[in-house]
Amino acid sequence: MDTMEGLSRSHYCGEVTEAEKGKEVILCGWVERRRDHGGLIFIDLRDRTGVIQVVASPDYEEQSFKKAEQVRTEYVLAIRGEVRMRDEATVNQKMPTGTIEVRCDEMRILNSSKTPPFYIEDNVDVDESIRLKYRYLDLRRPEMQKNLIMRHRVKHAMREFLDKNGFFEIETPELCKSTPEGARDYLVPSRVNPGKFYALPQSPQLFKQLLMISGMDRYFQIARCFRDEDLRADRQPEFTQLDMEMSFMSQEQILQLTEQLMHYIFEEVLGHDIQLPIQRITWDYAMKYYGSDKPDLRFDMKFTDITELVRGTEFKVFRSVIEKGGQVKAINVKGYSQIPRRELDGLVEYVGHYGAKGLAWICFTPDGIKSQVMKFLGEDTIQAIGTACGSETGDLVLMIADKPAVVAAALGELRKEMARRTHLIDENKFAFTWVLDFPMFEYNEEEKRYVAMHHPFTAPRDEDLDKLETDPGHVYAKAYDLVLNGVELGGGSLRIYQQDIQQRVFKAIGLTPEDANEKFGFLLRAFEYGAPPHGGLAFGLDRMIMLMLKRKSIRDVIAFPKTQNAIDQMSEAPGEVAVKQLRELHIHVDAEDKNLVKK
Amino acid sequence: MDTMEGLSRSHYCGEVTEAEKGKEVILCGWVERRRDHGGLIFIDLRDRTGVIQVVASPDYEEQSFKKAEQVRTEYVLAIRGEVRMRDEATVNQKMPTGTIEVRCDEMRILNSSKTPPFYIEDNVDVDESIRLKYRYLDLRRPEMQKNLIMRHRVKHAMREFLDKNGFFEIETPELCKSTPEGARDYLVPSRVNPGKFYALPQSPQLFKQLLMISGMDRYFQIARCFRDEDLRADRQPEFTQLDMEMSFMSQEQILQLTEQLMHYIFEEVLGHDIQLPIQRITWDYAMKYYGSDKPDLRFDMKFTDITELVRGTEFKVFRSVIEKGGQVKAINVKGYSQIPRRELDGLVEYVGHYGAKGLAWICFTPDGIKSQVMKFLGEDTIQAIGTACGSETGDLVLMIADKPAVVAAALGELRKEMARRTHLIDENKFAFTWVLDFPMFEYNEEEKRYVAMHHPFTAPRDEDLDKLETDPGHVYAKAYDLVLNGVELGGGSLRIYQQDIQQRVFKAIGLTPEDANEKFGFLLRAFEYGAPPHGGLAFGLDRMIMLMLKRKSIRDVIAFPKTQNAIDQMSEAPGEVAVKQLRELHIHVDAEDKNLVKK
């Protein structure tokens, strides 16, 4: 193998332009392709910026030509040579460097390569598990490099904006104390303190509030967080969060600052101009019209509540639902009245996954109205429903009657599904919305008590304080979520900073002062020493970048992600460890005698 | 308590200047001091920028004056009022805002405070364990706020420089695989993979090399790292590292880029102009003249090797050391010849801590030469030693005879100690040096084999490749450390990227291909697919910021540090966890039956 000795890269491959015509360049990179043609060898040389064509010939430099003959895909080369225009016939308009090439005056083979298990190119059709096992090759693909580079740019833009706005990035511990609230903790046994454990942080929530009590005023951190949950497609055991907290600011000021942050990031990284102010809807509104606290507003298709229209009908299914306190809601699907009967049957099945026991439909076809509930509701009611839903000829109305929670879930999912089927979603659109005024509490049927919807430090709205004891179900919080294209980008709240209100909230969720003290002791003590009014928010960075880049999986925007079994397929983590390590940590593995660990 | 409702902070306390005279400001902060004088109440209001005086009087606003009467230290206030010049008599030149004050036209008490356990002021004389327990109050002290703000600025400057220079910050996993090399790992039991464990990363070393194989070209990360070691004063179980790696660059290019990075940070954050290029010494030179691979070059006081001068003497102590392959080295302490005999005896004890069995001394006093070895060495030799050491009248020469390693350690420490005693150290100085050409291997007496001095991926110098098999003790590495004021700021190396050389290095440290494969399997596989020449370095961020800020402890530059027992005294992490949590993780605590964990 050759070395770089005496050579110093002058340009990245993708950054050589016609301006360098006639100049000597020194390039380094990987062989994407080699072609032998007419006594010449053509090599496409790739680095992170792109690809350029290198031409070797015995007429240019004999030694280099001989080396070029040995070269294969993914060999690592350094090339010295003159930039020149290609012959008209060989110009490649699809390549940014397609009008030029480099005459190979010197070639060094810096390293060889085995044949990779898949082609290093975009849209490669290869099983994800192979891509993850050979992640270092997968990351050579231009689209993966772009993802990671954009991720860097997003974080850099965030930091620039926050630094300019007086935020300090302060690192908080990752070896923390386990708290029983929230998701399952990852635990770390302590060697020095036998029988005790650290927990990896689910978020820096407590520490950022303590920093506000410290008077740091404006804090942020791009922080690693950990949750030991069963993984869904868009979850990772470790994930990255933009975490912010600020003092002496109103909710209005926090929302505005956050909008400016988002505007800056999208502008800097994507050149996209988010229209400010971002629209705001309340949680009640979101649930009422979209059945979701993170509605996809790239399309409209709001729910219409037709409960009152059908309250008086003979139709038993509707009537019994309404009598039990349920409701009937409908969506109008534009221009889909010709839906085949079989597809309609499929939709019944679809909403069944979300708990709905049935689906009623009305097709306002050009040939007249068709509906399986016509005979129960009568044409007048059917017409009235159509009017309420704003239906026109050619539209399809879909109705669900059930408990409000089931209607919300099932009709909400159906709304998104029908939008996909009718191509209503503009994939290029970024539809932001704030969702405000979340309920403080939700009733937990299992535990027969109210629990905090966000977390028990979220401040209730001033006007609802009186209801904390009498009507907790109708107390709303100073909480806000930012939603993009139907995905929760992040959210936060103003926090309780006054001890008397904190105690009343704890009481509302059935937490005695003793329990509260055991769970949050040191934070509550800190609040006794002059806590300022404060609030903040947190954004899931992986998800944000995935949405910005229009990717389908967060694994595409994480350099070394884990599978749904929380395994790193490349390094094979987690792995077995030596018994000596366990002894030092004062722990045994349950299955130790089954030889699950190395002796 | 009052709320902020309708008020919006207009200024930070410390940023109000005479330019605001006559204007209304709205300030928020904590009560640093309250004084009642002449019917007025004076409140020093503090936020993260500084302190300003607020004056309340019933003549200004009755209600606010009444509130001011209730106010105590660390209460949280919002103040609205007009900025005015102070009376000449009350001007405080020590305060940046000492010529102005704010007339209190409105006061809101946003929160009360218990009396804090210590004063919120700099140079507070309080036990560190109290400071750590009430860290949120400790962090209110201006010097601690400054430390954290400077830390933010350092990281921000790093990122700016590296972004401008084409480095991408890429996040690597923290749930990794345990590798048996290096320090002790923190382990994390896996719930989904029973009996298996993640390890928290000691550094992102393997991942950054994989990113180079991925063609990312220039990587950095300000990364959290973990080592479960017994803690010394300047160590923490979790610490932060600036981690860098780059491809296709020579050692010279890496050193130059690093120097520019350092220059940028010191300039941006401290306004300090590091003189470039930073001086370079070899590891051999550092050991020979300073007895340390991280010499403090704020002062000179080099070692003089006097072995040859005393080889022929009758002095048995020296002779027997020399005969066994040892050496005799001396330092010259300027102007310290009048050292009392008792202090000399103390020095003998001092070097004893570092393994030296004795210490010989020569005092070139104005009244003549005094030395306990005069009669053994004779005046000629004593004079010759003085000449060799560059001694003048008034100087003290200290000599140690021992094995080279002991001479280096003991005389190296003595050198620093004598510099402190003779006030030779300019505390305002930043003395940088590169230490280059580290040995590849050091001989491990216990294991009777060579081990890698840095890590086994460090590249040997090209000119030493031949010695890998024949004379590993004289193979030097393409490794470099950056040293500041006697502390290793960071270091790195060019890496081996060619498989044949990697195998030879493994062989030199007695690692069979099978062992190597078990330990580093996936990395070695990755190297088969076209690894580029690459190298990098890592800097300990906590230590760097400590040195920049001239602090004595890294705990002063970490928001929430742990004690030497790896305990967070505020949150009391690590803590006990529920047995249910352990069962889910498939582990038992050894002492579980002793009730060390909650049932």
UniProtKB/TrEMBL annotation, chains A, B:
Residues 150-561 form the Aminoacyl-transfer RNA synthetases class-II family profile domain. GO terms for cellular component: cytoplasm. Signal peptide: none annotated. Keywords: Aminoacyl-tRNA synthetase, ATP-binding, Cytoplasm, Ligase, Nucleotide-binding, Protein biosynthesis. InterPro entries: Aa-tRNA-synt_II (IPR004364), aa-tRNA-synth_II (IPR006195), aa-tRNA-synth_II/BPL/LPL (IPR045864), Asp-tRNA-ligase_1 (IPR004524), Asp-tRNA-ligase_1_N (IPR047089), Asp/Asn-tRNA-synth_IIb (IPR002312), AspRS_core (IPR047090), GAD-like_sf (IPR004115). Its EC number is 6.1.1.23. It catalyses: tRNA(Asx) + L-aspartate + ATP = L-aspartyl-tRNA(Asx) + AMP + diphosphate. Residues 205-208 are annotated as: Aspartate. The record marks 37 as: Important for tRNA non-discrimination. It is found in: Cytoplasm. CDD domains: AspRS_core (cd00777), EcAspRS_like_N (cd04317). ATP binds at residues 227-229, 236, 488, 540-543. L-aspartate binds at residues 181, 227, 454, 495. GO terms for molecular function: aspartate-tRNA ligase activity; aspartate-tRNA(Asn) ligase activity; ATP binding; catalytic activity, acting on a protein; nucleic acid binding; transferase activity. Pfam families: GAD, tRNA-synt_2, tRNA_anti-codon. Its main location: cytoplasm. GO terms for biological process: aspartyl-tRNA aminoacylation. Belongs to the class-II aminoacyl-tRNA synthetase family. Type 1 subfamily. Aspartyl-tRNA synthetase with relaxed tRNA specificity since it is able to aspartylate not only its cognate tRNA(Asp) but also tRNA(Asn). Reaction proceeds in two steps: L-aspartate is first activated by ATP to form Asp-AMP and then transferred to the acceptor end of tRNA(Asp/Asn). Homodimer. This is Aspartate--tRNA(Asp/Asn) ligase. The gene is aspS.
